[in-house]
């Protein structure tokens, strides 16, 4: 079902262009679904991201902090309080007409918090390509849902295999992608995982070969894919 939707959608169909169906279906099986309520922050500008988003339904607004200063990241409770305050102010304005009420993109509270409003992205749109293509890349904007919004989420490892497949390269895990999917490295930063992966060396061991003797001092750590 997801495979058929991705092929029919104009934005995502380009990603799968020229790739065998069996590879496309494999990538689609790694996709996950996510639904965000209105006024939810999907990602913050400056964050290191590893997810590519495809909007199934709903709408998000894009905000960019134009200054070099580090963008503040409110706690979830502070964000909810901010939204509730804005809603109460809107409801208290009895003289306001329907045309005076706007989505979050035009809420006067949010540009101060997240920067300058850039544009909306609706159903079928995508964002997050840069973050999944380059591990050291940072999110270029803050993304906020304006309505109940559903996404298809594709993680960096699956996305990069998709790109390599579209270029005719071998579809397999890089050392970085292999480490990134392991629970042990969940708390590691992208840079630390990348540096550690660069130190790994692939070895092939024949059957019935002893890796080390009992009671000997271990010199290596083995990761089996």
UniProtKB/TrEMBL annotation:
Q: Which superkingdom is the protein from?
A: Eukaryota
Protein name as annotated: Cyclic nucleotide-binding domain-containing protein
Which PANTHER family does this one have? Answer: CYCLIC NUCLEOTIDE-BINDING DOMAIN CONTAINING PROTEIN
Q: Which PROSITE patterns match?
A: CNMP_BINDING_1, CNMP_BINDING_3
**Cyclic nucleotide-binding domain boundaries:** 15-163
């Amino acid at each position: 079902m997801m495979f058929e939707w991705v092929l029919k959608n104009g934005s995502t169909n380009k990603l799968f262009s020229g790739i065998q169906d069996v590879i496309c279906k494999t990538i689609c099986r790694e996709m996950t679904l996510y639904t965000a309520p209105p006024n939810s922050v999907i990602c913050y500008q400056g964050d290191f991201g590893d997810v590519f988003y495809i909007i199934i339904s709903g709408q998000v607004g894009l905000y960019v902090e134009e200054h070099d200063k580090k963008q503040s990241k409110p706690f979830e409770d502070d964000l909810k309080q901010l939204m509730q305050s804005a809603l109460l102010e809107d409801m208290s304005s009895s003289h306001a007409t329907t045309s005076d009420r706007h989505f979050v993109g035009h809420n006067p509270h949010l540009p101060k918090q997240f920067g300058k409003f850039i544009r909306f992205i609706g159903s079928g749109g995508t964002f997050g390509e840069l973050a999944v293509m380059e591990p050291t890349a940072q999110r270029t904007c803050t993304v906020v849902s304006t309505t109940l919004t559903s996404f298809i989420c594709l993680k960096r490892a699956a996305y990069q295999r998709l790109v390599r497949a579209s270029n005719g390269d071998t579809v397999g895990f890089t050392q970085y992608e292999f480490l990134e999917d392991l629970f042990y490295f969940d708390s590691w930063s992208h840079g630390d995982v990348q540096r550690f992966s660069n130190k790994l060396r692939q070895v092939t061991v024949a059957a019935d070969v002893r890796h080390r003797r009992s009671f000997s001092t271990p010199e290596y750590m083995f990761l089996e894919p």
